[in-house]
Amino acid sequence: MDKDLVIRRVVQAAALLLIGDGIMGLIKPRWHSLLWHFGPEIARAATEELADHPTTARCVYAAEATLGLLIAIRQTPDAE
Length: 80
Known about the structure:
Blueprint: H1 3-27, H2 29-35, H3 41-52, H4 54-75
């Protein structure tokens, strides 16, 4: 398999994950933030802050979804 094709597929998968995770966070920011409440103390502290501040969490998740969209747009050719 072509190495470039593998890289494009990995980047596309990452974009899909960012978009999906961002949209889930926009819908239910507290629930989604607490879903990821594990790991090192700094990660748990970040998820607690997002869970306690849903407006801020929605901004973070909107930025995440936007980043995923931008990555997907850059990876998709104009012509089909």
